Amino acid sequence: MTGKSFNSSLAADLLHQPINLILQDGATFSGQSFGYRQSLSGEVVFNTAMSGYPESLTDPSYEGQILVLTYPLVGNYGVPPMHKEGGLLRHFESENIHIKALVVSEYSTESSHWNSWKTLSRWLIENKIPAISGIDTRALTIHLREQGVMSGKIIFDNVDTDFVESDKLNNVEKVSTKKVGTYGNGKHKVVLVDCGAKNSIIKRLIHRDVTVTIVPWNHNYLEMDYDGLVISNGPGDPGILTPAIDNLTRALEGNKPVFGICLGNQLLALAAGGKTYKLPYGHRSHNQPVRMRKTNRCFITSQNHGYATDSSSLGNDWEELFVNLNDNTNEGIKHKNKPFFSTQFHPEASSGPTDTDFLFDDFVEMIKKNKK
């Protein structure tokens, strides 16, 4: 079924169904449904990217969240087909949609793109994801920036629900793989600790002659045969992931290269004895500027996180690697003597800029040097 034929029969009805988004502080925003009809609650966050909603909606780091897209027109290029290459979906960051609901200013009922497989509305309904259009997302975003991200709920047909306390949930457990798996057939062996890993991380490693063994977030990988360790992105508070922190603390006693990405940056800091804290409204966009410390090198990065590392809490063996130029928050750390480093941003991009893709090269070079 094409997106156009689907819209002509369904979208007109959907876009006349009123729906409310109610924030925990009482603020209410009204719009129309273009997704699945179900009352629910989740943490309300915003993303300022201008494109890439198939990647964002399938990013496990959004697990449990109601996502607000600030770009005013969403859905105009539809959703691509779910084709796989090497066991991984081509245009998506995981097998499932991970947001709890989607909020946009204007939903495009007509989608047009050479690779469009179905409409965004149809995709959301098939996956039982509520969605609201007609919301003043500028006003909603300003409210979240001033008051901080908070829980919200979407009410359908007067069926109420309780506000969820997202910070108390271990959503990493929900999104992590439940078994050990292998991708690629390269000469360098890398263990990827899956806290909610994006497909693009695996793809960027395979591209560099790496065999990727993906393991659950709490898996004891210390006795495994590997050349390097990657700690992935993921949702929620890193402080509750005690098994992952304990395993990483012991891994740091050795000398095999370690590369942390997003949540992996925070876990590396905690394993090194540092601290993390929650940001008022997080970094979720494709245009976060960061600078590499001790240099004048600046990069535009893709980010999706609500927690940050307190760089001042790190011990003398560690130093800050990158800093955010908007708010001076930490964007990466590294060990002064051992091959351990991390980034708070996403060097694999997808979706977003590819300025920092070279960090995967740096990691593989560390592996080669360490093996010699």
What does this structure look like?
- By secondary structure, this protein is of the alpha/beta class.
- It folds into two domains: 3-168, Glucose Oxidase, domain 1, CATH 3.50.30; 171-371, 3-Layer(aba) Sandwich (Rossmann fold), CATH 3.40.50.880.
- A ten-stranded mixed β-sheet has the order 12-14-13-15-16-21-20-19-17-18, sandwiched between helices.
- Helix 2 (53-57) links the parallel strand 3 and strand 4.
- 50% of the residues are buried.
- The protein contains nine helices and 21 strands.
- The protein is 22% helix and 32% strand.
Q: What attributes characterize this protein structure?
A:
Rossmann fold; 2 domains; alpha/beta; 9 helices; Glucose Oxidase, domain 1; disordered N terminus; ten-stranded mixed beta sheet
Task: Give the SSE layout.
Blueprint: H1 3-14, E1 18-23, E2 28-33, E3 40-47, H2 53-57, E4 65-69, E5 73-74, E6 84-85, E7 88-89, E8 101-103, E9 106-107, H3 120-126, E10 131-133, H4 137-147, E11 150-155, H5 171-175, E12 181-183, E13 188-194, H6 199-206, E14 210-216, E15 228-231, H7 242-251, E16 258-261, H8 263-271, E17 275-292, E18 298-310, E19 318-324, E20 330-335, E21 340-343, H9 358-371
Parallel strand pairs: 3-4, 4-8, 5-9, 8-10, 13-14, 13-15, 15-16, 16-21
Antiparallel strand pairs: 1-2, 1-11, 2-10, 3-11, 6-7, 12-14, 17-18, 17-19, 19-20, 20-21
